[in-house]
Amino acid sequence: KALSLLGLSSSHFRVRNRIEEASFLSLLPHLLVCPSHKTQHQTHQEDKMSDQQQPQLPSELRINYGSLLEIGGATATGSDSAKTAEAWQVQSHKWALGAGILYTLIIVCGIFSEVGLRGSLIDYNDTTTTITNIQDSPTGLRWSLLLDLTMSVSDVALSILLGAVLWAHGADKLFTVMAMVFRIVQQAILASNLLHLFVASLLLDTSLPWRAAVAAWLSMSDEEDGNNNIGENGSGSGMNIESLAMLFLYLHKYGYAVALVFFGVSMILLGGVIWNSRIFPRWLGAATSLAGVGYVLDSTAYFGVHGYTGDGIVSQICMLPVFVAEFGLAGWLLFRKPVPAV
């Protein structure tokens, strides 16, 4: 019954046994000859026979054996591989969803912090207005700092999840790691740069008891240096506490530009990974790389172009691909699956 299930019959095995017996009998005279008494002709015949193939089973029997082994092995291996691939795909989709949620949080925090809070408080062309705005709304600058800190922490987690998604779908491992490392370095710079913003908020907080001592120390330093220039607050000090606060605000602005250079490089690499692997649509990869170029050009202009403030048409042109890339990638991670585009 077992043989019938395998598609075999007892006649197959009888044929096989006869062939094996014939092969053994044909080799028996050669086995009985002493090696020392072998002639050159016998040695040549043995070499010739060893080069020939061994007797093959009948084609019907051979096909049945091969099919049985092939089907059995493929079934076991294919089943395990399918289960592993399915589990891996489900896990990667969870990572993609988490990355999409974090990306959305980063965009919301970044826009609200930079445009909604700092943009309404700080005017780098008008120091007096900036000082007045911050002192009238001291919590606004603090909230923008907390939002930036939330953005930095979320972006580090996003880098890990996004790298895992790209890795799981067969993206180039070297360039994926490079893109994520540049992104994490950017967040390290941004997080440390928040100290400049925090110091500025402390210097302009009139409720702090040590603020008067700092103002007096600045005034004494100017008098010792012979600086008799009148400061903006009329205190007779060329470097007053308000000017020092503005200096830290400027440091924060330029530190932000330094961080965006690393972010731009990360976006260029990420766009190349997306373009080559086609895990996401190719247009999204192209937009991501263009956004990275825009970040690099806009940020390096702060240091390479005299008088560049980032408020003109050049900065707006550089930032055009950013909206397509950032919102597109976040939306694709949230609502679509990271699979090769059709």
From TrEMBL:
Highest rank taxon of the organism: Eukaryota
InterPro entries linked to this entry: DUF4386 (IPR025495)
Keyword Transmembrane: yes
Keywords of this entry: Membrane, Transmembrane, Transmembrane helix
Signal peptide: none
Residues spanning the membrane: 95-113, 145-168, 180-204, 254-276, 283-307, 313-335
Organism: Amphora coffeiformis
Name of the featured protein: DUF4386 domain-containing protein
Pfam families given in the database record: DUF4386
